[in-house]
Amino acid sequence: MNIMENIRISFRALAANKLRSGLTMLGIIIGVAAVVALMAIGRGATRSVTSSVQGLGSNLISVSSARNLGQTGAESTPLYYSDYQAILKETSNVNGISPSYQTSAQVVYGNNQSQFTITGVRPEFASVQAYTVAQGRFITDGDNTAESRVVVIGSQAATDLFSGLNPLGHDISINGINFNVVGVLESKGSTGFFSTDEVILIPLETGYSRLFGGRALDNGKRLLSSISLSAVDPNMVDSVISQVEYILRKDHGLTLRDTLPFTVTSQNQFISTLNTITGTLTAFLGAIAGISLFVGGIGIMNIMLVSVRERTREIGLRKAVGARRSAILMQFLVETIILSLFGGIIGILLGAGIAGIVTLTGLITTYVSMDVILYSFFFAALVGLFFGIYPAYQAASLRPIEALRYE
Amino acid sequence: MIELENVSKIYKLGQSEVHALDGINLQIQAGEMVAVMGPSGSGKSTLMAILGCLDTPSEGVYRLEGEPVEKLNDNQLAQVRSRKVGFVFQQFNLLPRTNALENVMLPLLYDGIHGKARAERAKTALETVGLANRMHHHPNQLSGGEQQRVAIARALVNDPTILLADEPTGNLDSKTGDEIIGLFQKLHQERGQTVVYVTHDSFIARHTQRIIRLVDGKIISDEPVVHPHPAGTPRPEEAEEAKLNGGHTKPVRHWHMRSKEKHA
After folding, report:
1. Number of folded domains in chain B?
2. Is residue B145 part of a domain?
3. Do residue B55 and residue A400 have CB atoms under 8 angstroms apart?
4. How many domains is chain A built from?
5. Does pTM surpass 0.90?
6. How close B237 comes to chain A (CA, Å)?
7. Pairing mode, strands A112-121 and A200-203
8. Residues 6+ apart with CB under 8 A from A201
9. Does A192 have pLDDT greater than 60?
10. ipTM exceeds 0.90
């Protein structure tokens, strides 16, 4: 008895009870579809997060005071403007270094007013953070030296404040002080939860002298919110981080044994952290879907047990005419495997379809990867094998004479 | 040759034991045609199951062609059933949704015979039982007698040495039953197969060469039939009617079904 005969017999048995076979398969279909669709959504989310982080700038390294992460209790050490000067002087393999100070302020243009985060920057900000100017110009050294009241705004901020009018040359009021719009930034595109297009940038020197006030000073020393650096190439990122940490320890009189009160993180670390989070989320979604696949498998086992019971006499007859245990075992096992494989294939198509619809809605760009398809296919086959063994074993173990007399 | 030596079959029913067969000693020579008779629960079907290797004795020795069967494992028993024994049941036991030809091919499937040879042999077997023109009918399109002929063809297809028939006429009217026993006689004469035939009907039993009577799992009589009925012998009551009608038998009117009997 070869496998083709077996498959033919199984198809006939399954076709004899189409509704039942269909409903049994439905459990696997839903399970596999859920796995494929949810994994596609999870992978899509990971990809969009990664690409939006990469959009922040290449080989980016950020330095900020550890208090920004909300560490309470610990003595917080502020980041000084002098730290920037030290880093600027002593760090190599760096394309640009951009100090910045952030504050929140009321911004008004005409009848539009809203709370914005105002960032005081130097010209290096544009290259380090990968911004390009769409209209007008960026902040210059001259603006800083002259402490000019000029402002460069992000594309979203421009839309919010000017509602489609050309902002160039107009004055906006920041906390009651008028700033002249000299530039509008190119949109960085859809960047998820980072409001990179809502920035409002002013010269750092102007901020210190006119806007930030006493909060930006610590015993007369200027404070910074963060310093961004861009390494010359990806391989230099770690070396730059070490240099920066060394300089910060030296400046603040810390030894290697002290905990560094600053966070020096690279974009890669950030991406890998995010990937860990989205990966966990994806695995979690996959696990939930896996449970439904498992339940589908139990459904198959249930139906196969009923089917073995129903066909007891048939099994008895097959044994009476010479079928070995293994032949009966294979017959029922092949039936469950066919059910689960077909369920798996339909489920994959359905899951990919759902992922496609989710993409069309524009919520998230899903990504159906080949490995997920292969995994779910083999997992479905495995479920069929696992849940098929017990009913098939029961069928094979029936004693022929008792099976023949079964009513 | 079939040899039973002190064979018992004991079923446990809760606390008590039931001796379905109780110390049976029996020899059936190759090529014999034997009827087994006895009331319900006398152990006929149990005896047949043991002869057909569907079941094994609790005690005693069963030798089939000199080979002790109880020493065989599951797979070897399956092989004996496949190669040496053809079984015909009261309930036909055909697979539904499967046509006559495929039903007959079933034993060959499990004996590893390949596609073409399988169909050829199944066709020959169906021709032997006179169903050449019904090969592609499904069981539900066949009459009771035709279904039983398919089952007989299935029993024949592997060319077994022993044909075991467990009340094959029990679900058929007497006219069809007479045809079936006639078919067994023909097979026995033409192919020299050993036939063991369980029946309640002493008229049918008298078509064989030897009648074994069982009561309560014991053989109470084992006698040769002096002049076995040839196939086509009219039943005594029909012969009576024929006499009254001046020598012509009337068309048979025995279309009632016999009540199903429970086997012990």
Report:
1. 1
2. no
3. yes
4. 2
5. no
6. 34
7. parallel
8. A118, A119, A120, A121, A125, A139, A151, A152, A153
9. no
10. no
